[in-house]
Specification:
The structure is a single chain. With 340 residues, the protein is of the alpha/beta class.
Length: 340
């Protein structure tokens, strides 16, 4: 019997990457995880609920890539793989100050290094890259112009006024650079770009309230528990559960079913201020105790159209209510409170 297909995965120690790892293992892939530190990654990933007692854990192998920006960084670790999923990308963390050096350039270089490595390996059939709905529309957009998976914008140039503006620029830059690379090199594999909206839901790698609110996982409840946060003021009304993002990434590897050399959105419309009533309905005791308090948050209407993805991939995205309650219940777990 032929061995299961081998997938190289980057970014597995991150919110999206971890769920992709779990989904890929469940779907029958062997997964080679590229990380900066093998010992650190094993400690972080193999002790999770999803993997600590999983029968699929034996299908994980770890390889070390200390510097993903070094020339040839992925050459050795790509050998013999059938597929690649590239989730690794710099996040807009508040302590970053040199946005071009710490966010934009690493996103471009990491993507191109991986494509170069894949081109040297004849076994590679497809590369899937985590992009974003922020990658093909101008930062701080206004108006009612509809954005689709086929929309493209010029690569933004700095200086950037915030880490998130730089993050949006990095996604546009990496998307444009990857597509230009494919046009120029015409590799033996194709490339799929997955473009999620705000990715929310239970974050199994988070064990503290701070970790749960770092990144986007906790966005459904952030205004209910941390109204002073800048992210509590409002944002575009678009989100997607991390489990659905993972499903789309893994199903994108099905070359006979999913068209390559294009992008697919992962997005649903949400109204952030609905979260309080959802939490009140499902977790009334926590609301009565003041764990979750109603607070105003604005929702900007989204004009990003990604509805074809659910049909093409045969998946029904989870509701905003389900994602919100998952996050709220995890918040209570971290606090050591009951969910009643």
């Amino acid at each position: 019997m032929a061995p299961a297909p081998l997938l190289l995965l980057t970014g597995a120690t991150g919110f999206i990457g971890f769920r992709v790892l779990v989904e890929a293992l469940t779907s029958g892939y062997r997964v080679r995880v590229a990380v900066r530190s093998v010992s650190s990654a094993k400690s972080k990933l193999l002790n999770t609920i999803s993997l600590s007692n999983s029968s699929h854990a034996s299908n994980i192998s770890f390889v070390e890539v200390p510097d993903i920006l070094a020339p040839g960084a992925y050459t050795e670790v790509t050998k013999g793989v059938d597929f690649v999923i590239h989730c690794a990308s710099p996040l807009p963390l508040p302590h970053l100050t040199d946005y071009e050096k710490q966010i934009v350039k690493p996103a471009i270089t990491g993507t191109l290094e991986l494509l170069e490595a894949a081109q040297k390996e004849p076994t590679v059939k497809r590369v899937v890259i985590t992009s974003s709905v922020a990658g093909n529309r101008p930062f701080g957009w206004t108006g009612e112009t509809v954005t689709t998976v086929d929309t493209r914008i010029p690569t933004p140039e700095g200086p950037f006024e915030s880490a998130f503006e730089a993050y949006s620029a990095s996604k546009a830059a990496a998307l444009n650079a990857a597509e230009e690379w494919v046009d120029q090199h015409k590799p033996g594999f194709d490339v799929v770009h997955i473009m999620p909206a705000w990715v929310v839901g239970r974050n199994e790698l988070a064990s503290t309230t701070k970790e749960l609110l770092t990144g986007t996982a906790g966005l459904p409840i952030i205004h209910l528990v941390a109204p002073e946060s800048p992210m509590s003021k409002g944002r575009s009304g678009e989100a997607v559960d991390v489990r659905d993002v993972a499903i789309v990434h893994v199903r994108a590897l099905e070359t006979t079913k999913i068209q390559g050399n294009k992008g697919y959105g992962a997005i649903t419309s949400v109204v952030w201020q609905d979260a309080f009533e959802m939490v009140k309905k499902h977790l009334p005791t926590a609301v009565d105790e003041g764990v979750f308090e109603d607070a105003s948050v604005s929702t900007e209407r989204s004009y990003w159209d990604g509805k074809e993805t659910q049909h093409v991939f045969g998946v029904q995205f989870r509701s905003f209510e389900e994602s919100t309650i998952d996050v709220a219940e995890q918040w209570l777990e971290v606090l050591g409170k009951t969910k009643a």
